[in-house]
Structures are given as C-alpha cells and as structure tokens.
Write a structure and sequence with these properties.
By secondary structure, the protein is α/β, with parallel strands linked by helices. About 55% of the residues lie in helices and about 5% in strands. Strands 1-6-2-5 form a four-stranded parallel beta sheet, with helices on both faces. The protein has a three-stranded antiparallel beta sheet with strand order 4-3-7, covered by helices on one side. Strands 8-10-9 form a three-stranded antiparallel beta sheet, with helices on one face. Helix 19 runs parallel beside helix 21. The C terminus is likely disordered.
C-alpha cells in the first residue's frame, strides 16, 4: 500500500468516477505535484472532446459517449463532483497536456465476465472497522464521510487504500481479463509520456497495476468510432435511474463539493437540504415545520459524532430524515417523505455545452425533423400526449414513421401508450407520449453510428440486427417477424423487400401457428396499404408468399390437439376465418380436432367448422347444450368450461349465426337453481376468457331475450345476486329437510315465503334467479 501511495511515475490519484471528496482534492494534489502531463481514465477516441469538456463556459452535468461498429458502447457522465472533470479543468487552466489512457473502444470486445465472489479478508476488515448505515459502501465510509477537515493527501491515500484492498481480494479469484487488458494499455500510455512528469487520475482499483506489468503493444486499428459530448441531468446521474456507475443523491454530492472540505460548511449544507425536504413535504400536503427540521439536523449531527465523523454524511442525513419526518409511518407518510427527499436530494439540474462545441451528425438532423413535424424539441421540457391518425392525415403519417424510426434506434424520445383498438383489434389511431429529455440528447449520438439521417440510421440498425443474428447462428421466426414489422412501421420498403426473403425461408419451416398468423396479418395490412410509409406493391416480388404461409399454418393444426391455451383456440378460429385457406386438408384437420382434440381445441374447431359452413350452427348448439347437461361432476364441469371457452373464441362471428348459441341460452334459462349454481363457475370462467367487447355483444343478445337491462344503474351486483341465490337454495333445502316445504322440485323463482322474507325487497328476490344467469 505504501509503495502505491509513494509512487511518483506516475503520481497516482485513485478515484471513484463520482466523488466530491476527490473532486475537491484533485486541484490541490496536482498543484502540489506539478505534472507536465495528466492522464485520465477515458478511451483514446474521446480525447478530441477534452478541450470542449474543459471549456469554462460548459455547465455540468454532461456526458461523453462513444460507440464502435461492433456495438461496444462507452458512456461517461461528468458532474462537478467527478474527479476526472476536475483534473481536466485543472490542466486546461494551467496549460498542462491532458491525455486519455484507457483501452480504445476499437480494441474492445464482449469478453468481459461477471466478477466472481470469493473471500475478501481485507475489505471485510476495513468494513468492520467503520460505522454507519448498512446500505453505505466502504468507499463512502472511509473516503467520502471522513473527508471533511482532512488534507488532500490524506483523502488521496484513503482512496488508494480502498482500491488496493479491493484488488488484493480480487486477485484470489482472478482479475477480469478485460480489466487486465485495460491496465496493460494504461501502462502503455504511461510509457508514451517519454519520461515527463506525469499524474494519472484513474480508478483506485487500477492504481496498483500501474506500478509494473506487461505493456499492450497491439495496433488499435482505424475503426470508425462515433463519439459525442451531450448535456446530461442529475435525475439520470442518480444510480436509481438505471445508470450502473451512478451515485446516490447528486444534489447532496454537489453540496458537499461546494463545502470545499469544511466540516461546518457540510453541516450547513445538510441543514439547507433538510429545510428544503420539509418544504417539499408541505407541498405534498403533509405537515413538516421548523421544529422537525431542527430535530432532524440535530440527529444527523449526533449520529456523525457517535460514528467519529467530522460532519454528517449522506447516510446520517438520510437516516435523520427517515427517523424524524416519517412519524413511524413507513407506508403512508413515509412514502411522502421518501418522495420529498428524492426530489430534493436528486435534484433537477441539467448541463449546457459551451458555445462552439461540435455536434454529432444525427442530432441536428433529428432536431430539424421534429421541428418540421411540430413535435417537442430541445427547448421543451414537459411531455406531450399525441393521438395520431396516420391513415387519414399526411402529417400524422410522417409523425408516426419518425417516432417508429427513433424507437428502433433506441432513442429515448417517444413511448407508445396504446397498441390495440377496440375489442383487441388493430388500432386505426395510435397514442404516444413524447418528451425531449437529457436522455434523448445522450442517445442520439449513439444512434448516429448507423447513419446520418433518421431513415438511413433506422435501416442500418435493422441491417446490423440481421447481421448479428447470422453471426450468432442464424435466424429465428420471431426475430425475422419482429424485424419485418419494424421495417414496415418505419417506412423502409427496401429493407422490407430484403426481409421478405428471410420470411419466405424461415417462417414456413420453423414458425408457430401464432407467428404465421401474425405474419399473414402483416402481409394483409401491407397489401391493403394500411402501413404508413410502406406501399403495398412491396409484395409484388413475392406473390406466393401468403399462400406458402397459409399452407404452413394448416400443417400446424394437428399439433394443437392437446392444447389448453386460449390463444391457440383463437389462432385456430382466426385461421379458419381466412377465406384463402379453405381446402380438404383444413376440413380434415378441423374434423379430427373437433372429434378427438382436448375440450378447448375441440370447441374451437367446432366453432371454426360452423364459420366455414362445414356443419350447421344448430349441430354445434346442440353439442354445447350437451356439455351443459352432462356437467354433473367436477370433471365434467371442467370439460364444460374448457370446451365453451374454445367455442367462445369465435364469439363475435358466431353471433351472426344465433342458432349456435340459442341452445346454450335455452339450457341456462331452464336449469334449476341448484343445477345452475353448480355450473355457474364454469360458465363464468368461459365467458371471462373472451374479453369485454365480445361479452358486451353477448349480453345484448341476452337482454333482448329477457326484455330487461342487466347493467342499469339501479341493478344489483350480479355477484351478490348469485350469493343470494345460493343462500336461497341452502335455506330451501334446510326447510325441506325439516318437512317445512314440499319435497317436489320448485320452479326457480317460486320459494317459500319464509325464505322470501329474508331478502331486502320482493323485487330483488324475484329477479335474483333470472339475473344471476346473465352474469
């Protein structure tokens, strides 16, 4: 450890990517050492951006990003409390050369392995010697919380000690080969300074590796790596946003940096943030006054003293706020306090690039595009809800295609909020939530890897996905279908044409029935011109493709014989409704499934045969009625539920042939109350499977038969009616067992007056049996 701390070529400053303690100490450390070259842990390709990153007019947070043709992505957000940014700014102020020293993106691959867990005696010993909250890591305890009042050199040595301990323990299980490659390149960068006085600002884990070891001499090549510098935001910098190298509560970290290592200033920053949290709690409708703020600060300071800290750290601040402000209500007020603390401690700061900073190729094109489409741009902050009608409006069609292309590129800009129409069908309109956020600006340069315009980038992205599948062993039906759908929705007819060759090759031999039907549905939409941006004549080069997919779909039917999946039943019915599919093979398959398939598939096959005109509706109706009649045991009632579910998969078209459902309705109306109650769970289970739109249509048929509305405002809850009916039957059976009622079977709504009197009113009692059957 002493050898690492005392090393002078290079002078080692071990850091964590976001550390207010080190960011505050770095300028003083560099002033004391006086380097001629400063090395920072960044990929070589990002070096061109360092002068712009150091520009005094730049306002952090910002982010550097880079992407190689192989898909390797590097993303480096910087805040004022990032030690690397502090070093770059120091070098710019003092006229000192600054260089990136990490492995170039062009030389990286996907060979990184997850770290293996093993014994960690050194880090365990260090962790055991500290105090604090369980959620605070060792770096926070030994470096951040202990830094106020310490000298810059003491902070540097504490950081190097944490990294050295972590590395010693990692060597027991073997250090990641990717990290070893990076460290070999760092040693090469140290050699390249040609003996000049050098300081290296690198991750503390890697500091010991710069003392000795092999040097990487490989040629990095001339790969076309796309790099950019974009504004960023505190909300995305916080690790809870999904950024893996983030830090908790950036606004707190900023306040600690601005305290400049003064314990009294850190305590004042804690007081200010606590007051702001209390104010935010009040804005959310809960009391939090000066007394609670004062008590929370007192507790934070006392916790710091008990733990031997010079000033409250983040852990003490959070613990004090939780203890004092939640009033021991973790679920109610506690959630309000958590939201308020998050709003204040995370913050809403966003960065601004310095004037004259170059912009990446795709970003200006996207900004121009959204401006021409009257969509939110960089100057907007609030999300906008859109309802697009692309088949009727040329502007909406262009908007739809643009949003689809940005989605395929992975640009964080638009989210589709409604994907289906009424009853589960395709929607004529689409709904989106659109917002330009710092994440939009951060992801646009990466998307620019695939092209300089939105159209060319989307096409390039889809081609890259296809090439990646070929490298990894070939295409799957689902992946080919997903690419075809994306290409069609993005208005890329040339890409659609090339992907249709994959569809013709892959889908007939490997797709499931549902995948084949999805492909046929997409081909129908393309042929009808219902996909904005993609003309129907794109299918002219493949005139027999639909027929090939239909033939493959029919061949899949025998494999459904034992299925209990409602989606398979719907797929079977959907296939039967396609007019082009009719043929002897389909008829034979449906007959076999109706006669010998599992109940669900048998019911669906019977419905499909009716729709195809292969059997009269009355025959299916009588078969359904027989399922109701035979449902006298639990096993048979299970058969009733599954078979009726299969029939109702075709509920909407069967309503056009009422003879198929009339026997079922007749049977239900004429069942005795006891028989009806026995079958009620099966009947309800089957009708629940068909969706609200189809249920509403069937309910309309039932209401027409009984001459009454079931969903009127004064109607009783059907579930309650069923319970009442069950209670009625139980009471009636009890009375009969005591010979207080005749033993013969009573009509459904004729019961003893003793039972009738138990209902709230006569109307509710008399309507219960009839209405419960319509649930």
């Amino acid at each position: 450890m002493h050898e690492v701390a005392d090393h002078r070529h290079p002078f080692l400053i071990g850091v964590r990517h976001h550390s207010p303690a080190l960011a505050g100490a770095v300028p003083a450390l560099l002033d004391a050492f006086g380097p001629e070259v400063v090395l920072v842990e960044l990929p070589e390709e990002l070096g061109r951006w360092l002068p712009f990153l150091a520009d005094p007019d730049l306002v952090a947070p910002v982010a550097l990003s880079g992407a190689s043709p192989a898909g390797d992505l590097a993303f480096y957000p910087f805040a004022d409390f990032s030690p690397e940014l502090a070093a770059i700014r120091w070098a710019h102020r003092n006229g000192v050369q600054v260089r990136p020293c990490d492995l170039p993106l062009a030389s990286r691959d996907d060979g990184r392995r997850p770290p293996e867990r093993g014994a960690s005696p050194l880090t365990d010993a260090l962790r055991g010697a500290t105090t604090g909250r369980d959620g605070d890591d060792m770096w926070d305890r030994l470096v951040e919380a202990s830094a106020p009042g310490q000298t810059p050199e003491a902070v540097r040595r504490a950081a190097l000690m944490v990294g050295w301990a972590l590395r010693q323990d990692a060597e027991a299980t073997g250090i990641d080969p990717f990290d070893l490659r990076r460290e070999a390149w760092m040693r090469r960068a140290v050699q390249a300074v040609d003996g000049r006085r050098c300081a290296a600002v690198i991750g503390s884990f890697h500091a010991a590796a710069l003392l000795d070891g092999p040097v990487d001499s490989a040629d990095p090549g001339d790969a076309d790596v796309v790099t950019s510098l974009v504004p960023y935001g505190f909300a995305l910098l916080d690790e809870r946003s999904g950024y893996p190298a983030g830090i908790r509560d950036p606004e707190w970290q900023q306040a600690v940096l601005e305290a400049a290592g003064d314990p009294d200033a850190v305590e004042a920053a804690a007081a200010s943030l606590i007051v702001r949290i209390c104010a935010r709690v009040r804005e959310l409708g809960h009391p939090a006054g000066p007394g609670e703020a004062r008590e929370a600060l007192r507790l934070a300071v006392d916790l710091a003293r008990l733990r031997g800290l010079p000033a409250p750290g983040r852990g003490e601040l959070v613990e004090a706020v939780q203890t004092v402000l939640t009033h021991a209500e973790p679920l109610g007020r506690g959630r309000v306090v958590a939201r308020a603390a998050g709003d204040v401690l995370v913050g809403r700061r966003t960065g601004v690039l310095a004037p004259g900073t170059p912009r990446s190729g795709l970003a200006p094109a996207v900004e121009e595009l959204v401006a021409s489409l009257r969509l939110p741009g960089p100057d907007s902050r609030e999300p906008v809800s859109l309802r697009l009608d692309p088949l009727r409006s040329a502007l909406d069609a262009r908007r739809e295609v643009a949003l689809r292309r940005l989605t395929v590129l992975g640009v964080t800009y638009a989210e589709e909020t409604a994907t289906t129409g009424v009853g589960g069908g395709d929607a004529l309109t689409t709904r989106w939530t659109v917002a330009w956020t710092p994440a939009t600006a951060a992801t646009l340069p990466v998307a620019g890897l695939w092209g300089t315009t939105v159209e060319s980038a989307a096409s390039g992205r889809l081609r890259a996905r296809r090439a990646e599948r070929e490298r990894q062993g070939g295409h799957t039906a689902g992946a080919v279908l997903a690419d075809l759908l994306d290409a069609a929705l993005c208005g890329l007819p040339d890409t659609v044409g090339s992907l249709l060759h994959d569809v013709a090759t892959v889908l007939p031999s490997s797709a499931t029935l549902r995948e084949l039907l999805a492909a046929l549905d997409l081909l129908d939409r393309l042929r009808a011109g219902h996909v904005p941006g993609t003309p129907g004549d794109v299918l002219d080069a493949h005139p027999l493709l639909a027929r090939e997919l239909e033939t493959a779909a029919v061949a899949q039917l025998d494999g459904l014989a034992g299925s209990e999946d409602v989606a398979d039943a719907r797929a079977l019915v959907e296939l039967g409704q396609r007019p082009e599919v009719h043929g002897l093979r389909l008829e034979a398959c449906l007959r076999r499934l109706a006669d010998s398939g599992a109940p669900l598939i048998a019911g669906a096959a019977g419905a499909a045969r009716v729709l195809l005109g292969l059997t009269p509706p009355s025959a299916l109706g009588e078969r359904v009625a027989s399922w109701v009649d035979s449902a006298t045991t639990p096993e048979q009632r299970g058969v009733l539920r599954q078979a009726l579910t299969g029939v109702l998969a075709a509920a909407a078209p069967l309503l056009e042939t009422p003879e198929a459902l009339t026997p079922l309705l007749d049977r239900v109306e004429n069942l005795s109350d006891r028989d009806f109650l026995d079958r009620l769970p099966s009947l309800r289970g089957a009708f629940t499977s068909i969706g609200p739109a189809a249920r509403a249509r069937i309910l309309a048929v039932v209401e027409e038969r009984i001459g009454d509305r079931i969903d009127s405002t004064d109607a009783l809850d059907p579930e309650l009616l069923a319970v009442w009916l069950h209670a009625e039957q139980t009471a009636t059976d009890t009375l009969r067992s005591h010979h207080l009622l005749p033993t013969q079977t009573q009509p459904p709504r004729e019961v003893a007056s003793t039972v009738r009197d138990s209902f709230p009113d006569d109307h509710a009692f008399r309507s219960s049996g009839n209405q419960a059957r319509t649930v």
